[in-house]
Amino acid sequence: MSDRSYDLVLWGATGFTGRLVAAHIRDHAPADLRWALGGRRRDALDGVASDLGMPDLPIVVADAHDRDVMRALAADTRVVCTTVGPYAVHGTDLVAACAEEGTDYCDLTGELQWMRRMIDAHQADAEASGARILHACGFDSIPFDLGVVFTQQVMQDRHGAPAAVVHGRLKAARGAASGGTVASMVNILGEAVTDSDTRSLLRDPYGLNPVGERQGPDGLERMLPQRDDDFGAWSGPFPMSPVNTRVVRRTHALLGHPWGTDFRYDEAMLTGSGPVGALTAAGIGVGMSVGGVVGGLLSAAAPTRKLLERVLPDPGTGPSPDAQEKGFFDVRFVAEDPASGTTLRTRVLGDRDPGYGATSRMLGETALALAAGEATVGGGHWTPGAALGDSLLRRLPAAAGVTFTVLD
């Protein structure tokens, strides 16, 4: 790949999240990194370069829906990092191009149905070309995926064996969901109403696993409130768990099932210890169940979908720098080995809002790790934990404000 013009192209650099990723790369990239900004409009890209204080930064102008143009872009860089969603609408041609050209790739998608399509359609090409394709490299799903990898590493080091069960819980967070995340959720709900394959995937806890490994002991995410004795609080369903749990299970499969073929993982959201916590957990479950049905029906119909797009957050907007700095997330894990009675508690803490500040830095570090050649696996569709687990466990505390600690 020495004849390629760039080490890294940031695609979608003019969007709100794209600008944040660009600033992170500027601040943390090695001096000799050959990188460029990519998007549809040169004037907007020139503006981003100027705002970065890098007016001579190379610009790549292209159309995400032109397969030949996307292939030319992929052929001219070693790594593509993209923030352009919904990915099911705007990302397919870029993934196909990277898989064909042997170009490493990372994104922010949490769109299960699209990830599965990309795996099924382009796994063989990526394996043949050597392209490492990494989805879900933001708050969906790095804190959870890497949190489980970290927890199992500590279990192995301290107790000589991994945990058979890990429980992940969002303890607290401050920050609104990003406009891009909301747009992706609307797209998923609409597809679930009209497409039986999408509905089947959402009901399959192992739907992202490799072919032949799409089975195991875990069931669907629970929707009812539960007294969570491990955490001394009530818990309810976590909206991101359908994505995170499947990413964690794919990581386990890609690593060769090091935590055992009966390994189980679940996620929920802690809501408090008293009656208010129980009512809150119940309300979340009802809201998600009813909201999912209603939202799916609305987003499947063209007129109401357009109305939703007008009233929901714009994918190109986001919080102020002050709001990003005041945001945070706190994720807890309890690992258990029922046979020996051993338990371990860990925490993943982020010091920026999850939807923008933390997400942009996690994606930026993933892209920089790929550009630095830190993924030693072969080509194919990987998860952050399977392809860059040790690398990101070093990088994120140092450069992204995401820390991994043992609480016991």
UniProtKB/TrEMBL annotation:
One of its GO terms (biological process) is glycolipid biosynthetic process. SUPFAM superfamilies: NAD(P)-binding Rossmann-fold domains (SSF51735). Pfam families: Sacchrp_dh_NADP. Residues 9-132 form the Saccharopine dehydrogenase NADP binding domain. Gene3D superfamilies: NAD(P)-binding Rossmann-like Domain. GO terms for cellular component: plasma membrane. This is Saccharopine dehydrogenase NADP binding domain-containing protein. It comes from Euzebya pacifica.
